[in-house]
Amino acid sequence: MLPKREFCRNFCFHLTTNSSVTYRLMAADKQLTPMMAQYRRIKGELPKDAILLFRLGDFYEMFFEDAQVAAPLLNVALTKRGVVPMCGIPFHAANNYISRLLKAGRKVAICEQLEEARPGQLVKRDVTQILSPGTHFDERMLAAEKNNFLAAVYGVGKSFGLALVDLTTGSFKCTELETEAALLAELERLRPAEIILPSEAARLHELLNSNFPILNGYEDWVFAPETALFTVRDHFKVASLDGFGLKNKGAATGAAGAVLHYLTQHLRRDVGHLTSLSCYQASDYLTLDIITLRHLEILEPLHRDAAKNATLYGALNRTVTPMGARRLRDWLSQPLADAKAIGCRQNAVQTWMENVSALEQFRAQLTQVRDLERTLGRLSAGTGNARDLAALRLALEQVPMLRSILAGLPTSGAGNGLLQEAEEISEPSLLGELGSQVVELPDLIDQIARAIADEPPLALKEGGLIRDGFDPALDELRAASRSGKDWIAKLQQDEIERTGISSLKVRFNSVFGYYIEVTASNLSKVPQHYIRKQTIANGERFITPELKEMEGKILGAEERSIKLEYELFLRVREVMLARLPEIQQTASALAQLDVLGSFAETARLYSYCRPQVGTENVVNIRDGRHPVLEQNLSEERFVSNDTQLDQQVQVALITGPNMAGKSTYIRQVALLVLLAHTGSFIPAAEARVDLVDRIFTRIGASDDLARGQSTFMVEMSETANILNNATAKSLIILDEIGRGTSTFDGLSLAWSIVEHLHNQVGAKTLFATHYHELTELAGRLPRIKNYNVAVREWNDQIVFLRKIIEGGTDKSYGIQVARLAGVPKAVIERAKEILHNLEESELTPEGNVRQQARHRAERDKLKKLAPPPQLDLFGG
Ligand SMILES: Nc1ncnc2c1ncn2[C@@H]1O[C@H](COP(=O)(O)OP(=O)(O)OP(=O)(O)O)[C@@H](O)[C@H]1O
């Protein structure tokens, strides 16, 4: 017998072709074989860029261009039949291969056989799923703690509409962004797995192309607000979108409509579980631009090989469910801009910290809820199985206890005197509010408990899903099958007695069904009415008419009971779907409670404090620590530092040796300010962090060679962005501005940037620099203060104290650091010699003294100068 694949190939090509003129036959529709005509029809109805996996027996086959594209991606052989290129993948390992195609950014259409194959007849086939990178449910590609967003972007005038759908969780949201930079930052934050945009929107394509991998042009008319309005209204069955906050938001409506259209029409997906649409506004949140998101390493480390927890998210994440982890990422990358909302979260964290045993109990219980959002996503999108129903039940069973723990907490979390704004004391309790959104569903739990077996299998069509006693018809079928099996078991005993063959066995396999097996030495005793079916190495197999009759009964009953089980599963699923909005609301509330609990747990473990949050432009931190570094330092203990930015000190200039801790310190301040805006407590002894409107960072040197920008160009573009967009409410951290060019150019730029920030912008600024000359500025401008990172010199060596102290410094200790780094002794000694000469005078190319120290004279002149003009730095 041919292996199945060969059989299929011969079969299909027997129908398809028997000569090398296949391609011509394919091209003329009327001459196509029935199967190829079927293939053509199905392929013709699909999105052009989808690769069609066409089920043929135990394989999925790809033909023509699909095969040519897929074979190298899948690393399978590209073969030919006639002139038709083809390749195939085994059905049982298809998921692995499909993942590879999705990872490569392709869409995959899966065409199944809808009936048993019968030789000589065309099998019914149709597409059951079209998958794309932003719309699949493949666990191997999904990260539990990350959303898998499909995004749609639509530009109207200067605004951009952005809509996001995560099919795996049922999350659907949209917003409008006013600038390209804001759009890029939001996309960077959310990192969609796939983005659709109008095909003709050339500028948008250009803008997104270099930053985001999977962009798909989609029909322009679908984005038009009038069409989109209709699509969204139709999906939610509402007359107006005002209730979603979409009034007068053409760009957001366009994007939301397009994403729905793409899912339902292009990918033919069921989106019934997108039960709500939330429209959010950038102004509700602290603005973090793309550079800040990356450089502060909020969600992802800058360097791929960095430890996983080397991010703010990694250091803060103590959530106990994946949905909590996803929500935490959201909160950290989208800090709040409203003191009241921040106060509500702080109250919740504080309540937990004051009720630690309740917190522990709550978190232990919450663990059992697992990924309720994704369980719901799978069930409602039709990919879920009975195990998902069992998981849903387990999650819902935790609800009464979770609610009762919440109910036992004091209603107000405030009251330790740290709060600055008295009105926050009367805020409604966020814990109470979230608790009221967690819904108990005893009927549904009961229904699942009665219906679904304790440990159901993964497969839905092999039985074993439904409990005995749930459905009388199923019980009857099972009884029939069981009694048949008892009859067969008894038959073996009876036949042994009747024939005297003690080794006689009644067995079953999927090819022959039930049969009687007799070993070679006993064949002479086989009765006349046994019908020989097969000879095997050590004996023979027989059937009898009565055995076959009973087999028919058993198999019939089994087949029907499996079918019925599947129907019953679908019925229970329907019951669940009727409660979908309540369960989604419960999941969302539990995700938030998980984050609040995680904030409390981190605060408790690392002694965080509750920052006061006001509106007067003050940042005053006592004994602040870097949240990530403090958890990751193995050799040193983290040294805490203070920060004071207010009406008196607007710009803090931080000098100090290499390696002393300048960058760490300024990043730490930015992270603590950010963290305070999320409602989390922060690693400090005491803190007041007033609201800021944006956090800007200019850190580190990175080339953007892909876009043809040099290190210095990148540095200056980032600086320009800051100077053009910062306000008096912003926080800016600048690390070594000007380093990328010649000393004098760099110093001049740094000098005038600081002046501009001080005189024109008024933003709170931390400026770490190696230009000691800049410390002169503190004497000239009122709100600039010098700090340096203390070191102790000892026998020509330095000890880093990591303490930020007031005052400037004029030594870099670069040579000492070079020695610590292992630079050869001879080089170090020569460097010292050159340094000495430099300090005294200018050098010849050989490193010898040439003339008197002009440098020093210039500095002295500078010191004597009366208050600015600013360009006098190197004048004269
Ligand atoms: N407060 C601190 N407590 C303990 N260790 C610290 C502290 N601050 C910094 N460090 C350690 O010192 C190292 C160097 O710090 P950092 O990169 O901030 O120095 P830097 O002054 O910016 O150096 P450079 O000027 O060479 O860029 C950090 O990687 C960290 O391990």
From TrEMBL:
<dbReference type="GO" id="GO:0005524">
    <property type="term" value="F:ATP binding"/>
</dbReference>
<dbReference type="Pfam" id="PF05192">
    <property type="entry name" value="MutS_III"/>
</dbReference>
<feature type="region of interest" description="Disordered">
    <location>
        <begin position="843"/>
        <end position="876"/>
    </location>
</feature>
<keyword id="KW-0067">ATP-binding</keyword>
<dbReference type="InterPro" id="IPR007860">
    <property type="entry name" value="DNA_mmatch_repair_MutS_con_dom"/>
</dbReference>
<dbReference type="GO" id="GO:0003684">
    <property type="term" value="F:damaged DNA binding"/>
</dbReference>
<dbReference type="Pfam" id="PF05188">
    <property type="entry name" value="MutS_II"/>
</dbReference>
<keyword id="KW-0238">DNA-binding</keyword>
<dbReference type="Pfam" id="PF00488">
    <property type="entry name" value="MutS_V"/>
</dbReference>
<dbReference type="InterPro" id="IPR016151">
    <property type="entry name" value="DNA_mismatch_repair_MutS_N"/>
</dbReference>
<dbReference type="Pfam" id="PF01624">
    <property type="entry name" value="MutS_I"/>
</dbReference>
<dbReference type="GO" id="GO:0006298">
    <property type="term" value="P:mismatch repair"/>
</dbReference>
<dbReference type="InterPro" id="IPR005748">
    <property type="entry name" value="DNA_mismatch_repair_MutS"/>
</dbReference>
<dbReference type="InterPro" id="IPR036678">
    <property type="entry name" value="MutS_con_dom_sf"/>
</dbReference>
<feature type="binding site">
    <location>
        <begin position="656"/>
        <end position="663"/>
    </location>
    <ligand>
        <name>ATP</name>
    </ligand>
</feature>
<dbReference type="InterPro" id="IPR000432">
    <property type="entry name" value="DNA_mismatch_repair_MutS_C"/>
</dbReference>
<dbReference type="GO" id="GO:0005829">
    <property type="term" value="C:cytosol"/>
</dbReference>
<keyword id="KW-0227">DNA damage</keyword>
<keyword id="KW-0547">Nucleotide-binding</keyword>
<keyword id="KW-0234">DNA repair</keyword>
<comment type="function">
    <text>This protein is involved in the repair of mismatches in DNA. It is possible that it carries out the mismatch recognition step. This protein has a weak ATPase activity.</text>
</comment>
<dbReference type="InterPro" id="IPR027417">
    <property type="entry name" value="P-loop_NTPase"/>
</dbReference>
<dbReference type="GO" id="GO:0030983">
    <property type="term" value="F:mismatched DNA binding"/>
</dbReference>
<dbReference type="Pfam" id="PF05190">
    <property type="entry name" value="MutS_IV"/>
</dbReference>
<dbReference type="InterPro" id="IPR007861">
    <property type="entry name" value="DNA_mismatch_repair_MutS_clamp"/>
</dbReference>
<feature type="domain" description="DNA mismatch repair proteins mutS family">
    <location>
        <begin position="730"/>
        <end position="746"/>
    </location>
</feature>
<dbReference type="GO" id="GO:0140664">
    <property type="term" value="F:ATP-dependent DNA damage sensor activity"/>
</dbReference>
<protein>
    <recommendedName>
        <fullName>DNA mismatch repair protein MutS</fullName>
    </recommendedName>
</protein>
<dbReference type="InterPro" id="IPR007696">
    <property type="entry name" value="DNA_mismatch_repair_MutS_core"/>
</dbReference>
<dbReference type="InterPro" id="IPR007695">
    <property type="entry name" value="DNA_mismatch_repair_MutS-lik_N"/>
</dbReference>
<comment type="similarity">
    <text>Belongs to the DNA mismatch repair MutS family.</text>
</comment>
<dbReference type="InterPro" id="IPR017261">
    <property type="entry name" value="DNA_mismatch_repair_MutS/MSH"/>
</dbReference>
<dbReference type="InterPro" id="IPR045076">
    <property type="entry name" value="MutS"/>
</dbReference>
<dbReference type="InterPro" id="IPR036187">
    <property type="entry name" value="DNA_mismatch_repair_MutS_sf"/>
</dbReference>
